[in-house]
Amino acid sequence: MNKRLKKFLAIATITTLCFASLIGCNNSNKEDTKKDDEKAMDKDVIKIGFSMDTLKEERWQKDRDILLAEAKEKGIEIIIQAANGDDNKQIAQAENMISQGVDVLMVAPHNAEVAAAIVENAHAENIPVLSYDRLIKNSDVDLYVSFDNEKVGNLQGEYITKLVPEGNYVYIGGAPTDNNAHLFKKGAMDILKPFIDDGKIKLVYDQMSKDWQPSEAQKHMENALTANKNKVNAVICANDGTAGGAISALSEQQLVGIVPVTGQDAELAACQRIVEGKQTMTVYKPIPKLAKTALDLAIKLAMGETIDTNNTVNNNKIDVPSYLLEPIVVDKDNMMDTIIKDNYHPFEEVYKNVDEKDRPENM
Ligand code: BGC
Fold first, then answer.
1. Cystine design at 115: which of 104, 136, 279, 328 (Cβ 3.0–4.6 Å)?
2. What percent of the chain is modeled with pLDDT above 90?
3. Closest Cα to atom 9 of ligand 1
4. Using CA atoms, how far apart are residues 171 and 30, in angstroms rounded to an integer?
5. Which atom from ligand 1 is nearest to the alpha carbon of 134?
């Protein structure tokens, strides 16, 4: 029997027992009964575990903070731990949440393949697993909640090919262990392909960055510039962290603001670079929407309720029922209508290095 169902039956039994012995339920023990009911309700608080790869990028701190606040508001318990990119640590932390009796385990895996062990361990205890933002591959994971990650790559590719329809392109991707990094790349390459086939765009450098490290991305950009004698016309970076690394390398060659660079996440530092003309665009994924949707669906999983999904994504083993949200392009021109309007970052912070006379009017 499903664990939550058992809990409900336990409460129902407590209530029925009281009714059955109604005559015995006199005024003197009414208070005791009330306390028992409260205790039973207390035990019934939904407990969710969230095993995270990392808190390094600013967005993951937002994910954590929003989940904590939402859980508090909904009166549910949430346990969150981050593994700092260590697979064994992530498995151990998840194991610990399983042994604490979580009703649902949410996982943002460091390694898409290795994390399949977490799904097995949780399923052995009848605990459903929700793949958060990043897909767990080769597993029977119950639900996947994320953004349309191929679309993130499409948006980067579309934006930059419109700006630079010909020339030497550099692709700096994310962690090979993260399924998203492959989806972002596929999305961007699908857009570049016809340009490459026509001989208009030449992909002169194409590398992934271990663990999404900005320092790796910086090295890639340095290598790409050296190998091509600085003749690079556009750079697709998979996220804002790697974009930051690439921009440091471009700055050594006085090419910042000259060579367009893409990103993703709408990190504060990236938004500042965008309004300062140092980074061309970013892909904004409203994290509050992701966190709230995931938590709502996790609660439904815990209650054994039907889940409304809007997609399925194959993870090499099954078609995982998925809920995918829409990513949004952000550049200098729509910064006010997106990031500022949504209160994702405060106006004063985003424009802090922009001369007052050059700032747009705050809303
Ligand atoms: C996420 C990105 C993030 C990257 C590095 C990806 O899986 O979707 O938002 O920048 O991981 O943490």
1. 136
2. 87
3. 265
4. 70
5. 7
